[in-house]
């Protein structure tokens, strides 16, 4: 993922902004519910992208990937709508408890930009995606960076149309969604009322997307490493933040590791999972990598 890439990450202030004041208010509504799911994964399973991960002789990349991770952020579904049979094959290759978090097709988000023509496409997308059955996690919609608040009516209609049996998260990239308090509050209210997660993107060149505003009890986080030693300290900060949010009522952690150049995403993931297990008392499998990850403890 090259989004938010900078030439000199050592110059970036990666410290977290203060939580939005309403995040704690939202989480407090779920405090008695208890932790439901913690999923950590990469964005793709392609061998050429995930260096230092696949053992020599690996025949099926997804099958091996799913033996090491409990989820995948399924970016492939952004580029085209696969036939239903493909989802059935993915389902069959993965173990019980594995989850797919697929991205909504670009025909919906980027090309047609939520206009009136997208709804038959949405129906087709959900029809085939539902073949993942209980392995289907939260579906996410990523809007183009130039999709701004002037398109508010399209967002409202899409949210109202979306079938509530499918969990949804949305990533907004245009700065005006967050810079104008009136616009931001209307957006947050819409997401809260419809139980939609407000995606957080942690990337070097777009610190404004660290709005720290949760809209339900799901932290859907897309973390983009900078291929720099600071990547590990940033993950440490996320462990602390998620522990804080969990104490306040966060029940679902869905964390996906990217890099500007996908060289060490499994290494970063292994490090993060080890730290998360220690801090939250969970028991996620730490992925095996051909190169040992940085010290976990």
From TrEMBL:
<dbReference type="Pfam" id="PF01904">
    <property type="entry name" value="DUF72"/>
</dbReference>
<dbReference type="InterPro" id="IPR036520">
    <property type="entry name" value="UPF0759_sf"/>
</dbReference>
<dbReference type="InterPro" id="IPR002763">
    <property type="entry name" value="DUF72"/>
</dbReference>
<protein>
    <submittedName>
        <fullName>DUF72 domain-containing protein</fullName>
    </submittedName>
</protein>
